[in-house]
Amino acid sequence: MLRLNCPWCGTRDEVEFSFGGESHITRPSLDVSDAIWSDYLFNRENPKGIHHERWLHRYGCGRWFNVARDTVTHEVHAEYEMGAPKPEIPGKDSD
């Protein structure tokens, strides 16, 4: 089972959280083309390796936070608050 460390509540089992998709995505303005909106809505990264994700502590504090997780091993490399920049992960390519 995946265990995540909520920045506010501490380490909990995955069942307390809801996955929110890729993090660090900027929503386009309302006056962009349909192609740009389509790209924003439907196209996401699907890397083999480090992926930056949003998680909601649904059955805890109810707050969103970011997780840097390896998609192959499910190893969690960092948990950090929303709005914070992507952390440097030693020895790993984080983009």
Compact summary:
With 95 residues, this protein is mostly beta strands. Helices cover 9% and strands 35% of the residues.
Tell me the layout of helices and strands.
Blueprint: E1 3-6, E2 10-13, E3 18-22, H1 34-42, E4 50-56, E5 64-70, E6 76-81
Q: Could you please describe the fold and organization of this structure?
A:
This protein has 95 residues and is mainly beta. The chain is 9% helix and 35% strand. The strands form 2 sheets. Strands 3-4-5-6 form a 4-stranded antiparallel beta sheet, with no helix packed on it. Strands 1-2 form a two-stranded antiparallel ribbon. It is globular, with a radius of gyration of 14 Å.
Characteristic key phrases:
95 residues, mainly beta, Folate-binding fold, four-stranded antiparallel beta sheet, two-stranded antiparallel ribbon, 1 helix, 6 strands, 9% helix, globular
**Fraction in helix:** under 10%
In one word, what is the shape?
A: globular
Strand content: 25-35%
Q: Which strand order spans the largest sheet, edge to edge or round the barrel?
A: 3-4-5-6
Mean pLDDT, rounded to whole units? 93
Query: What is the distance, rounded to the nearest whole angstrom, between the alpha carbons of the first and last residues?
Result: 25 Å
Alpha-beta classification = mainly beta
Unreliable stretches (pLDDT < 50, length at least 5) are: none
CATH architecture tag: 2-Layer Sandwich
Largest sheet, in brief, is:
4 strands, antiparallel
- How many strand elements? 6
Domain count, please report it. 1
The CATH topology name reads Folate-binding fold
| Oligomeric grouping of the chains | single chain
